Amino acid sequence: MGMIAVNGKTYAVEGLLFDKDGTILDFVSMWGPWCEWLLQGYIGRLERLAPGSVSSLGLTPAFLPRLLGTVHQADGRIVDYDRNGPLAMGTLPELFGILSWHAYQAGLSWAEAKELVEACRQEAESQLAKAKPIKALPGLLPLLEAAKAAGIPMAVVTADDTEPAERHLAWMGIRHYFETVVGNDLAERGKPFPDLMELACRRLGVGCGSVAMIGDTNADMRMGRAAGAAVTIGIAPTDEAGVSDVTAGLTDADHVIAGYAEISIRGASDES
């Protein structure tokens, strides 16, 4: 048992659950380049297989942000994302379904569309494995150390699949902090339903009502509420200009923070 304090309130918790993307790791640092590689390959391959389809479908630079929920600079670099969009809240099969549907609309068969998207996925994954463009959110490591020192077990619950999630945490050198990693492939229903959190809590040996859930999307908050979490904490990190949207659509969060410095953790027997 440990204590977590946020925004002047303190909660007794037996476990700490984290979303991965945008919560543990800086979302844009990894998924920005990955999505750029994916979309570049997709547009190029689609135009070769169905000439003229890119323009006829309106897959212009102005439309691309709406495709998966990304924010682009003039040069095409992804610098932000819609916290309530497909890239942030969807599963990988859902993202690939969106791309496959557009390829089907371009005149490819459904089989050809799926093959195109799979080729793009493999290329993006290959580029990602080479570059490993991942960085932790500021203040994460001190928080993990504090939870470890307090004896609070931790887990990751993510819309990503388990194997790549494990790999990303290993790249960051922080896998050892978490007793279990639960990806979307391990449950019948993903976020915002409670299944992932319930499985994580079973693996930790604690009740859902005794854990804190931390995430950057409202799907994380709704999952936490559906499972009966002791507290749901939404994180809205600062952007490149140093500005944080402390609402960020996190309407179901008990608390919204701009960074981990706003959370403190101690053992239940420690002095305040």
From TrEMBL:
It comes from the Bacteria. One of its GO terms (molecular function) is phosphoglycolate phosphatase activity. Signal peptide: none annotated. InterPro entries: HAD-like_hydrolase_sf (IPR050155), HAD-like_sf (IPR036412), HAD-SF_hydro_IA (IPR006439), HAD_sf (IPR023214), PGP-like_dom2 (IPR023198). GO terms for biological process: DNA repair. Gene3D superfamilies: HAD superfamily/HAD-like, Putative phosphatase, domain 2. This is Phosphoglycolate phosphatase.
